[in-house]
Amino acid sequence: MGIREDHSRFKDIVRGRIKENFKKYVTQGEMIGKRENDFVKIPVPSIDLPRFKYGPKQRGGVGQGQGQAGDPLNGEPQDGSGEAGNQPGQHELEATLSMEELAEILGEELELPDIQPKGRSRIDVVKSKYSGIAPVGPEGLRHFKSSYKRALKRYISSGTYHPDEPVIIPIKQDMRYRSFKPVVQPQTNAVVIYMMDVSGSMGEEQKEIVRLESFWINTWLKKHYKGLETRFIIHDATAKEVDEKTFFSTSESGGTLISSAYKLAMEIVQADYPFDQWNIYPFHFSDGDNWSGEDTRLCMRLLHEFFLPNVNQFGYGQVESKYGSGQFAKDLEREFPNDERLVISKIETRDKILDSIKDFLGKGK
Questions:
Q1: Do 167 and 210 meet the contact criterion of CB atoms below 8 Å apart?
Q2: Residue 36 in 3-state DSSP?
């Protein structure tokens, strides 16, 4: 019991340290490179571990023998070498947290509401899966072959088995039954479609902001959807689907046609994600430049006719760039005033990432 209590207390301390430094973890992304499946390793500073301390009646002494305060444990006293430092020592511990725990901390810090999935079913369905053999169970699940084998082994081991008269009569202790365990099957599926402008005006800093923000968006959505899928689209004047690594490392140049990404996202949804079975979350990140007003009008039509009536929420994140005009966000605000199906978030710097995550996830859709 004591070990479990200490472990629980230690986890509480780690959790507290993470919350104290939460903004740093979000903006610097230390943990993103240390993901292992459903866990992440986090460097946590300044955790004081328990240590022994002498009571008032035990001042001085070494172990149980004779000695004076300051004596070395073994050998003659030695002079120290080197100069005294003037900087505090760094005591860092790498703690492992599950993505579920990380999502809970994110939710607590940003006061995020739970998501209300849309679709035919909003709860997990529990089904029974027969997965083994057990010594007890209802007669209707009795497993004849296993029961017979047990009885045969008993006959042979006791020397009562006669090949000429192979009569085997199972008794209660021979009986074996099919066993099952409940299996949770998520009935609410979700897909996140990330689209990013990779034209020349989107630099490395802008893409790093998108990388950090998408990590936290995914962390929160996975808390609510066990079957979350993720798709990635990059675009300049044309769009293409890529894997996650390519999404965050590609450098392109040239003009920007935002509609190319929206058209490809629409094709992906139509091919793989029926509206009545999937919760769909498109996120588009750009610095706000588009090639022409005509292409912007096409984007607005796709949002009006296809995306907004069918997806859970469409998120547009505008990352500030010294080369980008930021016009697209203004066009969206003018076209969709007060439309809660579209969330527009402006991310000027890394320090605004937390605010932007709150913008995107704060409505519980």
A1: no
A2: strand
* DSSP state string for 299-324: HHHHIIIIIHHHSS-EEEEEE--TT-
Supply the pTM of this predicted model.
0.68
Strand 278-286 to 228-235 pairing: unpaired
HSE-CB for 173 with a 13 A CA cutoff: 4
Tokens of 342: 């579209």
| Predicted pLDDT at 86 | 53
Query: In this predicted model, what pLDDT tens digit does every residue of 215-260 receive, in sequence order?
Result: 999 999 988 888 889 999 999 989 999 998 888 887 766 778 999 9
Q: Does residue 300 or residue 276 have the better pLDDT?
A: 300
> What backbone torsions phi and psi does residue 12 show, to the nearest 5 degrees?
-65, -40
Where are the CATH 3.40.50.410 domain residues in the chain? 189-361
- What superfamily in CATH does domain 189-361 come from? von Willebrand factor, type A domain (3.40.50.410)
Q: What residue type is 21 in one-letter code?
A: N
